[in-house]
Design goal:
heterohexamer, A: mainly alpha, 58% helix, 0% strand, B: mainly alpha, binds sodium ion
Chain lengths: 146, 392, 392, 146, 392, 146
């Protein structure tokens, strides 16, 4: 059998060109409107951070991480500032999914080193009625094949 | 009179499966058991592999007549409606949803309801890695051509590298329906094997320093951006490659249901009950297409080999573009997130996270990898559209 | 060889949407964006208007071929099955449920499971106001005839005044399928606008004293009455206007599921998952019928104008009969509850409540208005049956 | 184009006649069996009202109305006497839907003036496991377009 | 002109149900009311009998045209697709799922998700009683032959004794579709009457000592056994009687969804929403087949009589084999659990428990009776396969 | 009309033969692998029983049976030893279904006489989050017609 290299070339060339055109185009447009909207939405936020303050310690909602040293992770407001509940929940779910045994000690360490991440388990305490986010994370776990 | 009784029993024995079982059917049943084991015992994408395996089991029971290949694959290239009306079995009727291209978009509707495009909107550079990871599709297409597949078959095999079950099924149904069983099994198996296939490639192509790069936190994304995004992507992708509109359109409609906040009812049903019902029907009937004639041949081996290539090259493509972007950005981008561009949401993103954390326990790449990850879904839908446009 | 590559890209460019977009399609896409804004940003019946808008968006993407008008609207007046088999797209298949009259009755099944006919049983005089509010249907029918619509079209336009989405879609599919998109959009938009359309009419037609009337508490309704009611209504309505049996029958079956207390499983699924699935399919495909040719013309303006008339006259009819009943009952009936007879459950009843409370903060009309409100559903189903019987 | 006024007249006339026939007929029949059944069911009810008595005050289940003065709304049994949970829930939902800000003070007032209605918020306390009714009400809210 | 109005009203009156109601239709509507009463008032399998009764009600409304017998039952023996396309009503379309054999297997899928085969695996001797209880099927078949039914009709009547609604409907649709309404009503009614039909037979055939026998506790069953079981049963049954594969295959796929523990999503949807949706459609359309011509004749009486025989002989068969096993096992088996072999899960098992406990309050037979009970489901599927193989 | 007794005989004979063949065959195979697996799984179990021990009394989760005397039903571990949660739940559900009034006193009695069964209500206390099992049982009750 003889392979139609012209067709093959056309498919590969066209394919890569179109895929890159489409996604580079989307990059451009999304970056553009992202700049526009993030500029527009940078102002009315400062009222939110205090939401995190009143709940520094009690009753960890999930067993994902040791709760005690978390209270030290000061820059909690970073998390509050726009990152959705689900994103944080997904991070936490991933931490859990990676296996507690495998890398047991890292959670503590990372909390003190990297503030934004350390905020994740903390966040769990803030959102006490945090079920929806966790349910969503669990769901994502269940539906990965799709 | 007793003779007549024996006669009657004799006919039953003649029709019964034990006497009419062919060697191929026996082998296929064993294959289906192996897949059931992989699904249940090893957790290989059980939500689809278990129905697929059971469909494969049912279709290879002699004389059960649940599925008839000839109705869907014949010289005319169309569904043989009169044959369906005369001999149609349960799985023939349910298979119509695959054949007519209904189930995969409906699954994408549900996927859209569960997908958060926030990380991609926050860091749209991820689109690039989502594009680069489609490299595997086209290299596997070429490889498949070289080992003797027809162009249409090669396109279907390449799309395995898209790491997206519904996209692979949607494309294969139109390009090479006789390979649907093998391709679906390969696609879902490799998606389950992503944590095994990707890490060595990722490590081989990156330096320890690159893998340790920590990335800046993603900016918050406003609701209005999340609302415009699905419409915008549909507009661009559907205009560029119209053949992929059913997939991308339903994906983005689902996402709009989710992000709009005013259609929770619809979003919940689309991502749960509707998706589950469609998944059952899709899995069982896709499995049912895998009879001995179409599955037990060298082509399946070729599909398995090329599918692996597709995943490997896709991973490599994503990582290499990640390296390039790392350099161009002055070391701000960890190339490990590039591998997530193959899709396999969210598993590939988890692999990026895990490999990164292995070098530096304080490195959290997951959210950054979600960007290329969901971009990869869009990228492979685009690639599928191109393949359909040229090869259909 | 490079020429061939360019050729291939050229073909794609030729087929791509950007080059083949017609002016009408561009305009329709903008209209769909406007409807999305109304659905999400302004809360206009988002459960249906959002799918409708997205379907309208998808159907106007060039070369996407998700929906083909010719399959359903052609000289034969029947579905062109062979064309469907050859060229059918995703939304063509899903549209079958609309065309064959399956989705609207299934939505009514779910509505029945959620409707409490108690207030109507307790105060059956409400039936009268539910009848009077159908006046708008017939006046709008006449108006539409006068501005040049055919009788069948005029009937479909009139039924907008029924303020009942599924009834309007069910009727229009049979009488004037080419207007389905415009009529559905008009019907759901006006239903969302009920709190704006009705109050001025209600205030203009009633005196302050009438609006302040407090009504006696409704009597308790026994379970046996609630069980007999759906069967009885089906019997009477289906015998009188058999064409409306699919709607009224399913509505009452749903209600029987609810009231029987022994079929909770069925009631819950019918009013949730089944209804949501059907809503998604119905919305997207009804939207898909709205191509430029059928939507961007003066007829749509006529539909918008007559739809408003239908709502206004329906409201007036209900209120005026309410006034009559107020007089006849010696001032015991607040005419404001008459306006709820247009259906738009439960929004129109809320409007009655709100307008009444504005005069007298201690006046609670909601439950009394629920009677005419659900009677209006029955009334417009009857009216639809008459229109179908005469004009089909 | 010439309008077929005869057809128009026939449609309008027939339509109104049939609609009124059907609904007046239903009024008659429903009123008839209503009279029959309400006569039949007026006796065996008196055992129910006490159900409301034991739960006069604690733990308001929903924030729809200020709970304190409600306890004074004596004629609670009226609500018990046959009006379904859902009906009461719908009233309460409507009150809430009308906007707390818009007519903030009226709930209190109405409770003291109009006994049957005042009983509504009260009822919420009686039905402690009142979720189904509320869920139903919320559902109705969500599905109004149908 | 006024004459024309009257004319128009006159036509409506001519078409309306009150004037064209036949005596048979009136009677059938009364029958449907009786069935509604049995379903709601007496709790006779309301989940299916209520939809069946309502479907029967709707189908007998004159001129409503929701269902057309001629589409499905005609000389050709096939569905008349062109008639369907021209005149199809709501229930015609929904009935396709019955006629094409789709709904019963889907219900079995849900049943499989809810069935625990543990007691049967722990005590596989129960299979014997599940076999013996099928005696009623064959005796009723013979009885029906004797009173004048054709062999195919007699087979459908016999299968009532399987005490399994979906199996009865699946079989009857293929063997004697014109009797579907009567047979479905008889099957579900007798299933509801199991607590009344069985006890006297059980008591008559057993001694007090036998009824007082306490059985040993069942051994624990490992997960691996529960996983192999559904595959094994499918293999054996589908190989032996291929015609029953749709039923047994879906039953066991559902069970695998349940037992695998990795497909909870699918299991939950299959046993809830999917099953409920299918139940509604199945019930209403099966009821719709019951028009006066097919229901109001002596055959229905014969079906009612033979259905009772089937249940009674099935019960007796199970109990008698139980007695035999009691003797052979040295008194370790309580013959009362044999009656549960007729299926009617889990009602028949409860009856065994109750009759046993009446003699000895400390006797708990429920779990032991669950073994024959679920074996009876498999047994009647096998019997259905034999009937289909010989009589179709 | 003349009855085709030959056909009738063939159907009945074949039917019974096939039904018995199939089910006796299944009996054999299931018994065989049952023996194999029960032999294999008899050893690794002893670690489980203690699970039952720490929760002897408090908070009965369901009103199905009087909880007090249950604590005496010593051989609880028997239940733990392999019988699934659902089986126990089904038994309890059946007890309840049989009607409390009809055989009011038997629950208590049976608990003291027949250890394995008496364990059922006890089990309910062990499984505090026992909803799924009960929901399942309720579901079965609801779906008996299928
Ligand atoms: Na991809
Ligand atoms: Na109306
Ligand atoms: Na049976």
């Amino acid at each position: 059998m003889s392979i139609d290299f012209t067709l093959a070339g056309a498919v590969i060339f066209t394919g890569l060109v179109v895929v890159f055109t489409a996604l580079v185009g989307l990059w451009g447009i999304v970056a553009l409107f992202g700049r526009f909207f993030s500029a527009a939405s940078n102002k009315p936020k400062p009222s939110e951070p205090p939401k995190a303050a009143p709940a520094p310690a009690p009753k960890p909602a999930a067993p994902a991480a040791p709760a005690a040293p978390v209270a030290k992770a000061a820059p909690v407001p970073v998390v509050e500032d726009g990152i959705g509940d689900e994103i944080v929940a997904v991070i936490a779910a991933a931490v859990e999914a990676m296996g507690a045994g495998e890398s047991g000690g890292y959670v503590l360490q990372s909390i003190q080193n990297a503030a934004p991440v350390g905020a994740a388990p903390q966040f769990q305490q803030v959102v006490k009625g945090g079920r929806p986010a966790w349910a969503q994370a669990g769901l994502m776990q269940n539906t990965q094949p799709f | 009179m007793f003779a007549i009784f024996l006669d009657s029993v004799g006919t039953l024995i003649q029709n019964c499966g034990f006497t009419s079982l062919s060697f191929g059917q026996a082998l296929m049943i064993l294959v289906s058991f192996l897949l059931m084991y992989l699904a249940i015992g090893r957790g290989f994408e059980p939500l689809l592999l278990l129905p697929i395996a059971f469909g494969m089991f049912l279709t290879n029971i002699p004389n059960a007549n649940l599925y008839h290949t000839l109705i869907f694959i014949n010289e005319t290239g169309h569904i043989d409606w009169s044959l369906l009306a005369e001999t149609g079995g349960l799985l023939d009727y349910l298979y119509l949803g695959v054949k007519l291209g209904i189930y995969p978009p409906l699954i994408f509707l549900g996927v859209g309801c569960m997908t958060d495009f926030g990380p991609l909107i926050a860091n749209p550079k991820s689109f690039l890695m989502g594009a680069a990871a489609q490299l595997g599709i086209f290299l596997a297409f070429f490889g498949a051509l070289c080992i003797g597949f027809t162009p249409a078959e090669a396109g279907s095999i390449g799309i395995i590298g898209g790491a997206d079950g519904p996209t692979a099924i949607f494309t294969t149904t139109q390009l090479a329906p006789h390979l649907l069983g093998s391709i679906a099994v390969a696609a879902y198996s490799y998606m389950a094997l992503v944590p095994i296939i990707q890490p060595p490639i990722m490590k081989a192509l990156t330096t320890k320093e690159e893998r340790m790069i920590k990335m800046e936190q993603l900016r918050p994304v406003s609701k209005i951006e999340k609302l415009i995004f699905p419409v915008l992507v549909t507009l661009v992708v559907a205009f560029l490659v119209p053949d992929t509109t059913p997939l991308i359109g339903m994906l983005m409609l689902g996402n709009l249901f989710k992000e709009s906040g005013v259609t929770d009812r619809l979003s919940k049903t689309a991502q749960n009950e509707l998706m589950n019902i469609v998944t059952i029907f899709l899995g069982v009937t896709v499995g049912a297409t895998a009879n001995a004639a179409s599955f037990l041949n060298l082509k399946t081996l070729g599909i398995v080999a090329m599918g692996l290539c597709a995943f490997a090259f896709g991973t490599a493509g994503g990582v290499l573009l990640g390296k390039l972007m790392c350099v161009l950005s002055g070391g701000k981008i960890n190339p490990l997130i590039g591998s997530a561009g193959v899709s396999a949401v969210p598993m590939a993103a988890r692999v990026s996270q895990k490999v990164g954390q292995a070098e530096n326990p304080t490195n959290f790449l997951l959210m950054h990898a979600m960007g290329p990850n969901v971009a990869g879904v869009i990228g492979s839908a685009v690639a599928a559209g191109v393949l359909l446009a040229i090869l259909k």
